[in-house]
């Protein structure tokens, strides 16, 4: 299962966050994928963008702080910047 599902249905751009065990927290890769999709959809026949999420507990808890902490512990301080 991918962390994010991005697709077009008719004239709608659909984005589904797919990390229910992490309260659908966004990773850097997920935010870049969303940005890329929206950039592409600007030139397409997309009338609306719908964003939803898997699970029942959270739409999106924000950025993945645990991932940022692990990156910092491994010496990657640019992740947090």
Give the SSE map.
Blueprint: E1 4-9, E2 12-17, H1 28-42, E3 48-53, H2 65-73
List keywords for this structure.
81 residues, alpha+beta, GMP Synthetase, Chain A, domain 3, 3-stranded mixed beta sheet, 3 strands
Q: What is this structure, in a nutshell?
A:
The protein has two helices and three strands, in the order E-E-H-E-H. With 81 residues, the protein is an alpha+beta fold. A three-stranded mixed β-sheet has the order 1-2-3, with helices on one face.
Q: What fraction, in percent, of the residue positions are helical? A: 25-40%
Poorly predicted regions: none
**Going across the major beta sheet, what is the strand order?**
1-2-3
Number of strands: 3
Terminal Cα span: 28 Å
Q: Give the rounded overall mean pLDDT.
A: 90
Shape field: flat
Structural class of the secondary structure composition?
Answer: alpha+beta
In percent, how much strand structure appears in the residues? Answer: 15-25%
Per the CATH scheme, the topology name is GMP Synthetase, Chain A, domain 3
Give, in order, the helices and strands: EEHEH
